[in-house]
Amino acid sequence: ETGVTQTPRHLVMGMTNKKSLKCEQHLGHNAMYWYKQSAKKPLELMFVYSLEERVENNSVPSRFSPECPNSSHLFLHLHTLQPEDSALYLCASSQDRDQPQHFGDGTRLSIL
Amino acid sequence: EDQVTQSPEALRLQEGESSSLNCSYTVSGLRGLFWYRQDPGKGPEFLFTLYSAGEEKEKERLKATLTKKESFLHITAPKPEDSATYLCAVQAMTDKLIFGTGTRLQVFP
After folding, report:
1. pLDDT tens series, chain B, 109 aa
2. Is A4 exposed, middle or buried (0-12, 13-18, 19+ CB in 10 A)?
3. Residues of A with CB under 8 A from a CB of B
4. Largest alpha-carbon pair distance within chain B?
5. Per 3-state DSSP, what percentage of chain B is helix, strand, and coil (rounded to 5)?
6. Which residues of A touch B87 (CB under 8 A)?
7. Which residues, including other chains, have CB under 8 Å from residue A1's CB and lie 6 or more apart?
């Protein structure tokens, strides 16, 4: 398997649920990213990990909690989300911070 | 403030009708400008990177150019399979990637 793989592809959850999004990259890249994509808005960078260390957190609410256990895997733990958190969540990876990012196909998240 | 603006928001073309998409940017120190293609239900797919004014890149029917204030994605004789949303992103000296809202292209046979 190659590229960036995200699971699940679709997720429906209630506001009080806890769930996790998973991302795996098979490209040997050193940096991984979480983005939020909402309709009619630009992609919003949420978190950046470089060599498994978090290097950027763009004022994301604490109900989103990232985890990077190794250079190939990235998780986004979700807890007590709000309806406005419904969006497409995209994971990306790049060889280094200044190299092109390669994206997965995203998780479509719906909050009831 | 770093900013990326793409125009038009949507573009409808007849097959074979060439056109250009625009990406205007304001950034404090450009490290690179990236073009992506995104199909419905998919993540963005990397197309090109441009690093300096005057640089050009080509891939099949697509050609990207860069000036100090904007980039163009020229589509020559498009086909229906070129229909997608095209995203532009600029990377500032902070390494942060700033995306535009995209141009949704539809090519009709």
Report:
1. 889 999 999 999 999 999 999 999 998 889 999 999 999 999 999 999 999 999 999 999 999 999 999 999 999 999 999 999 999 999 988 778 899 999 999 999 9
2. buried
3. 4, 6, 40-43, 45, 56, 90, 92, 97-98, 100-106
4. 43
5. 5, 60, 35
6. 43
7. A26
